[in-house]
Amino acid sequence: MELIDKTVQDFASRNKSIMDKFNSGNEVLLRFSFPGKEVLSTINGIMALSLGSLDLMYLLESIVTILRECVLNATKANTKRLFFQKKGADMNDQETYDSVMLQFKDDIIGDFETIRKELLKSDFKVDFKLKKEQNSFIIKVENNAVIHPNEERRINERILNARKFNDFNEAYEQMFDETEGAGLGIILTIMLLKNLGIPVDNFSIKAENRKTVVSLIIPMQLKTPEIVTEVKKQIINEIHVLPTFPKNVIELIELCDNPEANISMMAQKIQVDPSLTADVLKLANSAGFVSAKRIDTINEALMRIGLSNLKYILIAASSREIMDKRYKKFEMIWNHCYKVGFYARHLALELKLNSIAEKVFISSVLHDLGKIILLSVDLSLTEWISDFVKERGIRTTTILEEVSLGISHSAIGKLLAEKWNFSEFLTEGIAYHHSPLQATDENKSIVFLTYFANILCGIESKKYDYYYIDPIVLDHLGPFTENAIKDIHEKIKKEFLAKA
């Protein structure tokens, strides 16, 4: 792998080098022969840095998915040329091409590792390029093998046909083609661009100077269109019919803001509801409100956590109760949320932001509310999406579900938070936990910590890398070196495991 300023090894210095080039309008270049883990991780990091600097972080997951497809297709094209060279076959002879392509499909497609060593020794390269213009920035993926006429024809046909669809499922059913591969990457790319509001004409694949060049122009100002599907309507209707908090919980939440309320009065009201009592005790003993001594009574819980924190516990407990009653239980999502809550609160304490530690905890506990609704929708596509994600190494099924539905889990969560009249900090934490730069100044630290904690948990599950972390977030909370982040991460991880 060859990167401009490749001698720069330090995490912070490398990030600064990339951003200096990008912001000054110079080209950022990454050259490689094979897209191993380090290459893909570096591309992810470059995109996280550049999108973050333009307040376009919400595009990251979709753009990275598109680029992964482009990089793999460029590698596949180079691999194909190398395969033909090994066979001594002429790609321009149609009969030979068809025959050797059958062998290529059987021997290589889906298992590039079999030819990795030969690719690394060959002259075939892939260039990833990124450059900022005045009102947009341009991403190019180039491979030094000229596109074959058959490939160009098939690609142009797929792009043209994919433009006709707004629904991924419909496009997949009508366009699936297994002659040289399913062509799903192009369908996915076009659907994602439409969903993001990026003109499809901004994406092209063509021959230039003995190379095949994939180009994507991303405008700095986007207006995301509404791609309304029946499932999206169903989701919005689901939110409308979800019940509000029970009357007794609403009264308790209002009492938390009443200066005349006292612990005895609150304890009596909570204890008449056994389910609520259990939920309050569970959360009071949870990772978010660490105590050396186990809390066994409501009075003790309120003494320990205070009325202001009780308000947040009531919101979290009631949210979960409503969701669990309405939908099947998603214990994995809740477990992830509680873990993010633990990490976020401890990050706040490590960074001496004690005054917002409990708000950060609740924001993190509720950050994936929208995902529960998203994953509860009964789609015939769901099983296929899961297989596709596993096969292509995409980090999460959510991105494909979101492009199929035309609405993100963050947007669903925001709608739900607004329905339940959550505080602004909670609504923003739920809405912007993947796009922290959209947070208002007032709630920036809470949203940034929610985002940061979610990234750290994602690093542990191999979804992300440290290069993903937005430099603006790091500057606001730190600044940090990579080693400092890793040290804090390791410390919190050990504390979480000890608590579990």
Shape: elongated
What is the structural class? Answer: alpha+beta
Q: Strands across the major sheet, in which order?
A: 1-2-3-4-6-5
**Poorly predicted residue ranges:** 4-9, 224-228
- The span between the termini is 40 Å
Task: Report the portion of residues in β strands.
Answer: 5-15%
Radius of gyration: 25 Å
| Main sheet characteristics | 6 strands, antiparallel
Helical proportion, percent range: 55-70%
CATH class of the largest domain: Mainly Alpha
Q: In the CATH classification, which architecture of the largest domain applies? A: Orthogonal Bundle
Number of domains: 2
Enter the CATH topology name of the largest domain: Hypothetical protein af1432
Can you tell me the CATH superfamily of the largest domain?
Hypothetical protein af1432
Whole-number mean pLDDT: 79
Question: Could you characterize the architecture of this molecule?
Answer:
This protein folds into 2 domains: about 1-220, Heat Shock Protein 90 (2-Layer Sandwich), CATH 3.30.565; about 230-500, Hypothetical protein af1432 (Orthogonal Bundle), CATH 1.10.3210.10. Helices cover about 60% and strands about 5% of the residues. A 6-stranded antiparallel β-sheet has the order 1-2-3-4-6-5. With about 500 residues, the protein is of the alpha+beta class. Helix 13 runs parallel beside helix 15 (about 355-365). The two termini are about 40 Å apart. The radius of gyration is 25 Å and the shape is elongated.
